[in-house]
Amino acid sequence: MATSLVTLRRMEQVDRIAVLGLQVTPDQLPFVDHPVDIILNEKGVDFHVITTTTQDDDDDAIIVGFFLTDEDVGRTYDFISSDDTTTTSATTTTSSSIDLGLRKFLIDQKHQGQGFGGAAACQLQTYVHDSYPQYDNLLLTVNCRNTAAAHVYRTAGFQCDGEDDLYLGGAVGPQYIMRLPLQSEEHL
Predict the structure, then answer these.
(1) How far apart are the first and last CA of the chain?
(2) Quick check: helix, strand or coil at residue 167?
(3) Which pLDDT value is given to residue 87?
């Protein structure tokens, strides 16, 4: 069996139909919207796709997932000030780092459990650093009940200080605030 390769790239107009066809399981809907709702409702963000190919046929990429990056993440989360780069959690304040938001990360339900989400998450540091070199961290929130997603993000290098990094304004309960440093020694 051929090895699958996972790639991250910006969404292009030609990808729109495939992205609109992505689905999540009903139990995931509290944590992420349907792609059609995301595309229709999100403004001022960049859309990205997660594709897979086999080593034998890299011309036939399949879109298996989707996410967006948000350069004005302060408009989404009230723990980040939009007018400066101050980020606050329950007990910490950092005014010297600049965060790029990662939101709406999803893998199509028929492609879940095959390692695509983990492989994509592990590529985020390099991909985002190369695409947005002005940012210090990639920031996301993940619902505390979404243990599978939190595990994937931790495995990919996202950091969370536990109770000190909780966002209590989530629509379906508390969320971990997680950051992935983009300015690692590997990238300097």
Answers:
(1) 38
(2) strand
(3) 42
Question: In which band, very low, low, confident or very high, does the pLDDT at 170 lie, cut at 50, 70 and 90?
Answer: confident
Element (H, E) at 139: strand 137-143
3-class SS string, 69-109: EECCHHHCCCCECCCCCCEECCCCEECCCCEEEEEEEEECH
Torsion, Cα 32 66 127 117, to 10 degrees, reads 70
Taking a C-beta distance cutoff of 8 angstroms, is the pair 159, 181 a contact?
A: yes
The token duo for 156 is 């990919």
Residues 6+ apart with CB under 8 A from 28: 106, 109
pLDDT digits (tens, 9 = 90+) for 34-69: 899 999 989 999 999 999 986 665 568 899 999 999
Largest Cα separation within the chain, whole Å, is 52
- At 109 the pLDDT is 95
